[in-house]
Amino acid sequence: MSVAQKLILVIDDEPAIGRIIKVNLERRGYRVEISVDSVAALELLRNGHLRPDLILSDVTMPYMDGIELLTRVKSDPDLAAIPFVMVTARSRDADIIAGRERGALHYLTKPIVLEELFEVVEQTIGSAEGAESASQ
Questions:
Q1: Going by C-beta distance under 8 Å and a sequence separation of 6 or more, which residues neighbour residue 85?
Q2: Measured in whole angstroms, how far is the alpha carbon of residue 55 from the centre of its chain?
Q3: How many CB atoms lie under 10 A from the CB of residue 132?
Q4: What are the pLDDT digits (tens) for 28-70?
Q5: Which end of the chain, C or N, has fewer beta carbons within 10 A?
Q6: pTM of the model
Q7: What domains are defined for the chain?
Q8: Do 76 and 56 form a contact (C-beta atoms < 8 A)?
Q9: Could you report the per-residue pLDDT of 74-121, keeping only the tens digit for each?
Q10: Could you tell me where the DSSP H helices lie in the chain?
């Protein structure tokens, strides 16, 4: 019985961080796409080429930071329902509050604790298999 895997979009301008997250989430059974550019990621989302079950985004990025990306995603009726989690080195209270106020469900700080990431992903979108595990 084949069930589509849940798709996670990782947006981080540091390719090594994106790869670490991707490899570890794929080991847990998720499909993962990476974007190193928040502007390009937003365009993929808006034109319908990518419809993830979850977005994991850094805050500090060139062109458009993660908070602005979050604001734009949550203000777009076609994208607003996609769960959004910040994964960033910015750990000041003001940054965390800004992310939460704009719609981030969780705010994880780097260095990434993989077990914490896995827990947040599973709490947010469920297991990698999706509908199959929900029906068991």
A1: 54, 55, 56, 57, 104, 105, 106, 107, 108, 120, 121, 124
A2: 2
A3: 13
A4: 999 999 999 999 999 999 999 899 999 999 999 999 999 999 9
A5: N
A6: 0.90
A7: 7-112+121-126 (3.40.50.2300)
A8: no
A9: 999 999 999 999 998 888 888 889 899 999 999 999 999 999 999 999
A10: 15-27, 38-46, 66-75, 93-101, 114-125, 131-135
